[in-house]
Amino acid sequence: MPQVVIIGGGISGLSAAYFLEQRARLAGLTLSIQLLEQQERLGGVILTERASGFLLEGGPDSFLSVKPAAIELCRELGLSENLIASNDHQRKTYIWHTGKLKQLPDGMMFVVPAKVWPIFRSDLLSLSGKLRLAMSPLLAPSGGNPADLSVKEFISSRLGRQVLERLAEPLLAAVYGADVDCLSARAALPQLLALEEKYGSLWRGIQQARRSLPAQRKPQPEASLFVTLRNGLGELTSTLESRLVQTQVNFGKQVSALSRTPQGNYLIGWSGGQTEADAVVVATPAHCAADFLRELHPALANKLAQIVYHSSLIVALGYSQSTFQRKLDGFGFLVPRSEGKQLIACSWISTKFPFRSGPDHVLLRCFLGGARNRSLLEKADSEILATTLNELQEIMGVRAEPRLARIYRWERCMPQYGVGHPARLEEITSLLAAQPGLFLSGNGYKGVGIPDCIQSSSKAAAAAIQYLQSL
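The structure corresponding to this sequence follows.
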């Protein structure tokens, strides 16, 4: 019976196990699957808790509906009725700039403006910034090798420095926790590069894409941008775990080495034990994979180690409605790095997903860390909480004491797709081909969101089944 080992029990590893079982069943293949997880729970950064009347997400709180893999998996698992869209009729986002919360102009596409008049009516850009944006259609693209530009070079050379600093940078920091000076435009903004390459100008491409949007939209109940589950995203990982039939889950197994036996099988070792496998799916962060792949393939390990990961902090704050005076008219705010704050963003969960706090409570999620402050995880909880509350008081005028406060620390969990990432992926793919039966999945490669992780695991599982059939 073919043996498969999955290393990592986050959403990527769980999805890989589920898809392996499903595809093996369709192929008439009987597998023995082991899933090795170093922690004592599954789910990785997906962590749902209930406390004091609040539904808390320690990691991601939703996923994008425009990437269908997560919604499709939820439907396949029988969770369709539990899918809940964000409260989009109140979807407004604010930018903290020059001491004020200013509404993000209407008509944003990805991280750049697609409509002229909303941005010109807004006071988010200065007159010079607006004039620079207006000149964009007249300027030829510039700024280095178009195959490998940083986001800073790409956006500022096409749309101006203020569009970069006040729009693109805070939006991308909230997603990647990244430094736009180093972030690869081709990896992080492939849609924008594709538009520029197709139409010869980024601005013309954006206008063409905007005009074609109505024809591309599909009628679906999940028309909202963000989708979650009624009982939190932990419902997805727990349901996946419950559906595993052929998979043996082993907790507390931190893999330390991966090598080959004289017979050609893979030998997976950890403190106190080892096991053999015909195929291995590595569903850990790339830097973890690099550590235990170094003996097997030093060149591959070196390439994986070059994928930089940042740490992040999420501070969840619950308030009684009676003590919280501010009206939360929107989904929250973003803070550009030029403002010099510790906060990267704050989601107003009570507006975005009202069921998570109920009518008598207010729930906020604050994001800190990332590339802006890499040492923040070393601070004590009391210092992090004090900093968060002080900045919320300055930005939102919040003076009430929270009824609940939770701090979630995620060390080296957010990959930054640095300049050169697409070329690096090609090299990793080439090196991986020399190790038949070894497959990678996770957020370190072609997307950081939950749907991206699910999609990568689906592809890894399909490739593993194809490989096992060829033996």
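The chain has 16 helices and 22 strands.
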